Amino acid sequence: xxxxxxxxxxxxxxxxxxxxxxxxxxxxxxxxxxxxxxxxxxxxxxxxxxxxxxxxxxxxxxxxxxxxxxxxxxxxxxxxxxxxxxxxxxxxxxxxxxxxxxxxxxxxxxxxxxxxxxxxxxxxxxxxxxxxxxxxxxxxxxxxxxxxxxxxxxxxxxxxxxxxxxxxxxxxxxxxxxxxxxxxxxxxxxxxxxxxxxxxxxxxxxxxxxxxxxxxxxxxxxxxxxxxxxxxxxxxxxxxxxxxxxxxxxxxxxxxxxxxxxxxxxxxxxxxxxxxxxxxxxxxxxxxxxxxxxxxxxxxxxxxxxxxxxxxxxxxxxxxxxxxxxxxxxxxxxxxxxxxxxxxxxxxxxxxxxxxxxxxxxxxxxxxxxxxxxxxxxxxxxxxxxxxxxxxxxxxxxxxxxxxxxxxxxxxxxxxxxxxxxxxxxxxxxxxxxxxxxxxxxxxxxxxxxxxxxxxxxxxxxxxxxxxxxxxxxxxxxxxxxxxxxxxxxxxxxxxxxxxxxxxxxx
Length: 507
Ligand SMILES: O=C(O)C[C@H](O)C(=O)O
Ligand code: SF4
Known about the structure:
Elements: H1 2-10, H2 14-26, H3 32-50, E1 60-68, H4 73-89, E2 116-122, E3 126-134, H5 136-139, E4 143-146, E5 149-151, E6 155-157, H6 161-175, E7 183-189, H7 193-203, H8 215-227, E8 244-251, E9 260-266, E10 271-278, E11 284-287, H9 297-309, E12 316-319, H10 325-329, E13 336-345, H11 348-356, E14 367-369, E15 374-377, E16 383-387, H12 397-407, E17 411-414, H13 420-429, E18 432-435, H14 441-447, E19 448-455, E20 465-479, H15 486-498
Parallel strand pairs: 1-2, 7-8, 12-13, 13-14, 14-17, 17-18
Antiparallel strand pairs: 1-3, 3-10, 4-9, 5-6, 7-9, 10-11, 13-20, 15-16, 18-20, 19-20
Helix pairs in contact: 2-3, 3-9, 6-8, 11-12, 12-13
The chain binds (2S)-2-hydroxybutanedioic acid and iron/sulfur cluster.
(2S)-2-hydroxybutanedioic acid binds next to helix 5.
């Protein structure tokens, strides 16, 4: 179980790698989407080499285990709990289990409801154990439709295959870049609100290259894969050719009055693996999702480096805090910014705290990074960053603008963009929003040269305010101080494109 957890957190399965490489081939060199995919492939390679988490959000570990009749599930649960605690201690998982009401972090990923373990008996004599580590940003973009429904851009979605088609297209649109697109979706048709989502998540365990045995669903999967990319949302919501990397659809019966279509959205960092285990010895006999072509990311990364040197990319600016208002006003959406010097992490707990407390450090002219890192404390008590990509910024929308103005913060780094309240504050106060590449936790951890301090540790490791010294930390300006937002633009254009899918396709 320990090996399964470590491999799942640090190595993407082969089918997922192939989907990412295909996406790369579709993007034009030099575009934001291509640059993001370069960072993503580089990150996958670094996670392989460092045996460290691909993304800092190691999610809610969810195990699906098929056991021979008579296997002791109580003993197996105990083994899983032990392995989870051990993997957390060794920084292969971020401590991710928090009390829902107080926010207190248990520190070892164990607690009420975590991890999720589902057993099923079967007639075979071996154990099939599968694990998915699905992070919070993409989980928040799951969506459930109750048909009939009125959908933005698409109009009426009725209780038939075409209504289902509309729901699926809409689900990709509503996720925008916030679930770290390009993503994979699992769709569950039917059931109740619980079993529908369950079915949707089960689809994520299918091999991305398989073919649906149900003829209607096969056609629907192919339709979605052929058309969703036309929404133009692209990697990280930057615009681009690839928005969706996989679509798997399942169906179960429903009761007459209910008609649910449930969609589970998974980021590109699609961490799910499985093993076949000998039921008598406990040894691993086979790894799953490992068939087919192996992608050599080392070769990929070298090719990109050569390509980049020969190209004129977007405007490139280097910043070091404290940043002046004048420097900020010179930046525009699309500029690429490289940061050297200090930045401070702050996510949900910090933003709420700062809204009615003083800051523990002087934030005038400083940079806030929406990030909950994986940390390791060495024997001398010094912290080291093991994984540190951005978190979804929109959660801080109610606080961000006020906090920037209150403390004089000049730049915020996160992913997925922010809303109109923050955009107005950036204009009024002189601030920028920088979009880092979601999930690229190894890439950014490598840019962090030292941990200079930490405040508010009582909020737990992911939520504390870490003082980070960085070098060469690169992100894109997606909201500037002149009222421009790439996120607003992509949202608007993708809604227009969504409306093109209004007419019936499946009669
Ligand atoms: O919690 C995190 O670090 C990130 C989260 O998975 C997100 O996508 O926002
Ligand atoms: S940060 Fe992005 S890649 Fe990581 S778990 Fe969240 S959605 Fe997935």
